[in-house]
Amino acid sequence: MSHITQSVWVAGASGLVGRALLQELLRTPLQVHALVRKPIAELESSPRLRQHRVDLRRADLGGPLPPAHALYICLGSTIAQAGSREAFHAVDHDAVLNVARAARVLGVRRCAVVSALGADRHSAVFYNRVKGEMEESLRGLGFERLVIARPSLLDGERAALGQPSRLAERCTLALLRPLSGLIPARWRPVRAQRVARAMMLALSQRGPAVQVLESAELQTLGAS
Question: What is the pTM of this model?
C-alpha cells in the first residue's frame, strides 16, 4: 500500500459537485477530510475519507482540524432554498470565507472553489453579486494558487443524493438536455463530474495565483 503523504479538505461534500469531487479524490492516494455540518451516512466508504463536523458560522469552524495541503469549497445554495437573501449570503459568502480563512490559518496554500457563471460583485443580479463578492474576498486571502470554477447550470441528479428538489433547475435541464449539442459551451449545462475533474486538474498544475475557469473551459478540461 502506498504511503499517504498529503491530505485535502472538502467543504460542501453533500452537493452535486462535492460528491463528484469525493469520488475523484478517492481514486488518488490522498487523505480526504470532508467538512460537514452533520454526519452524512451516504458518503462513500473509504479508509481515506474522514468526516469532520464543523460550524460554518464560526471563524474557527468550531474546533481543531487536521492540516491539509489543499482546499476544495463546493458550498452553495439558492435564495429559495436558504429562505432569504440574508441566509443565502451567509452560506454562499460567509461560510465560504470562514472555511477559507480557517484553512489559511493552518497553512493551506491552494484552494479551488465553485462559483457561478456571471459572478460579478458589481452585478445588478443579487445571486451573481454575492458570488462575485465571495470571489473577491477569497482573492484577498493570499492563497498561493486559487482556482475559481464558474459553471453554467449544473447537470446532475440531486434526488439521488437526497438533496432538496430545485424545480426551476429540473425543468430547465429537461428542456436543454436534448438541445445540448446546439448550445454554445459557455451556456450549455455542465455535468458535476466535469466540474470536479477540471478543478482537480487545474489545482494540481502550475499556474497563476488566480485562475478563473469559465464554463466552456470546465467542459473541455473536465472531459479529459
Answer: 0.88
